[in-house]
Amino acid sequence: MTATRDFSRFNPQTTLQAGDAAYTIYSVQALERLGYGSIKRLPYSLRILLENLLRHAPRGLASETDIDRLASWQPGAVPDAAVPFMPARVILQDFTGVPALVDLAAMRSALARHGGDPASINPFIPVDLVIDHSVQVDRCGSPEALAINTGLEMARNRERYTMFHWGQQAFGNFRVVPPGAGIVHQVNLEYLASVVAAGAQDGEAALYPDSVLGTDSHTTMINGLGVMGWGVGGIEAEAVLLGQPYSLQIPEVVGVRLVGKLRPGVTATDLVLTITRFLRAKGVVGRFVEFFGPGLAHLGLPDRATIANMAPEYGATMGFFPTDDETLRYLRTSGRPPEQVDLVERYCRQQGFFYTPDSAEPAYSVVYDIPLDSAAPSLAGPRRPQELLPLAGVREDFSRQFAKPAATASQTPATAGLADGAVVIAAITSCTNTSNPDVMIGAGLLARKARQRGLTNKPWVKTSLAPGSRVVTRYLEQSGLLPDLEALGFHVVGYGCTTCIGNSGPLDEAIGAEIRERNLVVAAVLSGNRNFEARIHPQIRANYLASPPLVVAYALAGTVLIDLEREPLGLDPQGQPVYLRDLWPTEEEIRATVRQSLTPDLFAASYGSVFAGDAQWNELRGGGGHLYQWDPDSSYIREPPFFQELPPEPRPIADIARARILALFGDSITTDHISPAGSIGPQTPAGLYLQGLGIQPADFNSYGSRRGNHEVMMRGAFANIRIRNQMVDREGGWTRYWPEGEEMPIYEAAVRYRQAGVPLVIFAGKDYGTGSSRDWAAKGTLLLGVKAVVAVSFERIHRSNLVGMGVLPLQFPQGMDAATLGLDGSETVSLTGIDGDLKPGQQVSLRIDRADGRSETAQVWLRLDNAMEIDYYRQGGILHKVLRQRLRQQ
């Protein structure tokens, strides 16, 4: 396709004057001269994407056709084309950052083996890696918890952190935020993001929108600040930082008109859980969501960041809020320089990126209205973020979901009162909520009032406070509320993701034993964004998302089998009942405390030396040189096999013949199921491997911390204790090895199939790969020998990761799935029609040969969605393509 307009004399460059400085900008409204009509008819997010194309076209990273396609966007059409997107920067966290750095080091090693210059593998755009995923809640409920957990974190992860030190000196454009600073998305919101960036373009000073791709699905939190960004697979991020544009299907854009204001006592957490249920039901997967309307005036920027953070939970690529006066207010409050705030306003107004209440409504693919007063105090759970529950309905829903003979309360002194429904973890955690001063101050005020009434948390509740930045601790200290939270056991345990990603640490031994011996169904209540099965803690089956004040309330109640609207949390020393409504702070109390305690100097104090690190960090030595020195005895960092025998040219694509089925999965298989991040069981394939190296279970650490070792990670693929393969009658990472039908761990079966030269396929239901942007969910799949995954539907990031690793994603047509085909796992399957000239979305023949000799053929859809993805698949993966490009340039 060629452009429909004549670009031969088109020049979108113009100048923005700011004080004594003049900046080149690429005006999207200049396209109106070519007859595209008013650019302001486009959603704000597409205007920013259009600027990205205009700015990168002179460098050959975008074409006139790409610009034409996006400028011609129509709300009633479903776009079928992709455009390149080159972000201003990339952000990583350490769980996904380790495999990314390992891949880059492995690419350098491969290039050196081919006689090339390893230094040519270097970030093309700025990269920030924030260490936030490794701290665990080993100790809680005491003033020493932070120091103990930090010390254990450094001891466990010294080898990984040493590699980060090597990366800092080996690569340009690569910075590391050491442990203890906060959570990547909150650090991004409070410090790293600029909204408008300044840089050089063709030797001249230029301004352009800040934009970011991150190796964590909740990168979307920055959309609340008006910054375009979302999570991608680690493999895609590595290619982008090496100069390969990200291929983005031109999206439909869903407009969400917010009206009214929140009712008293309702938090931004309650609102985002309401929005998550609403948009999940509507279906926004693969779309941009853009918020607008009069309700924006009643949402502070931290509220917007909370809503944007959970875009992956409601399924959207982005949850975007355009820049407006509230954006500027937040930039000032968070200590951004005045001249930067002025540039943001000038640039966004000149480009038509600035939202005002009287702005004309853009044309959206569809518009949904959400009244803010429709939200109510609520939880989400017990297994998925979209399972919204009013407070009054939690007990009934728990009883329905976990119907079984009730276990009596424990009479053992150490666990007295422990029963089904007991809250054994109450965690104020996650950037989703700790970035929001209103809910954090609200939690502190509730704790103060509970303390004044003489209430305490129940003894079986493991309480923790893990702020997303040191700013939070500083304003809680300044307000005098931190001692009130500590009095209820909410001491600071670390500055990282902790419980939200499963780093909840161990339960008390007596409590864990009681749960196991009496088969109790116990609960966790956390202010996080995900609550998938076995994610928070392997012994906890019911997990609920809640606002920080409600986390405190449930710690006081000690059970989810309570109606917090009508029943007391407990009795005061005089025997009088104390209700949640007695403790809940008013909006005026919260706002007054925030105004008094949250000041720009707190941000300056927290981020003034954010890259420096403490003494423990600076004691690490990562070595020097362009090449990483691989240690063959390391159990944390190993050179991966992906590039070790890379042929200069890709091998021809072949049909997949007589493959065996490794697993049959149902709906909503998450990346936590596919590649768990939590604890490693002693009797799992990964645990047995580590013990074979002489490592005792106490020193296993977690799957997440060992993502630099492919030997651990491929053994951990599909090893989640709650995953259910329909080929066997038990939970966990088990399958049947055919033709014998012998039951065994998935990893062992994969090894046998590989030894026999048998390719593998996986079948799955809806939303396969939902959850975290976990590249090892695709890498582990590949290393087990899986050639294709056939699903009813895929979550966006995981499908991209599969393509990026050379695993073929295929989708059932509507009305077909593994059950309608009668599959039980004993069949062999063949996939034909992929060895020729592949076309995006074409049909592929699926032949099924059953054990009784019957055969049948069905048609499935190829989920390689554009020409670039087909090229990645032909190359064996996106990084293989980049490495071959570097080899040709030597």
Outline of the structure:
The protein is α/β, with parallel strands linked by helices and 890 residues long. It is 33% helix and 17% strand. Helix 8 (268-282) links the parallel strand 12 (253-259) and strand 13 (288-292).
Description:
By secondary structure, the chain is an alpha/beta fold. The chain has 31 helices and 32 strands. It has a 7-stranded mixed barrel. Helix 25 runs antiparallel to helix 26 (710-716). The longest helix is centred in the N-terminal third of the chain and has 20 residues, at 94-113. The mean pLDDT is 94.
How many H/I helical runs? 31
The main β sheet shows up as:
7 strands, mixed, barrel
Spatial sequence of strands, sheet with the most strands: 24-27-28-29-32-31-30
Strand content is 15-25%
Report the C-alpha radius of gyration, rounded.
27 Å
- Given helix and strand content, the structural type is alpha/beta
List the uncertain runs: none
Number of strands: 32
Average pLDDT figure: 94
Distance between the termini: 33 Å
Classify the oligomer. single chain
Helix share bin: 25-40%
**Overall outline:** globular
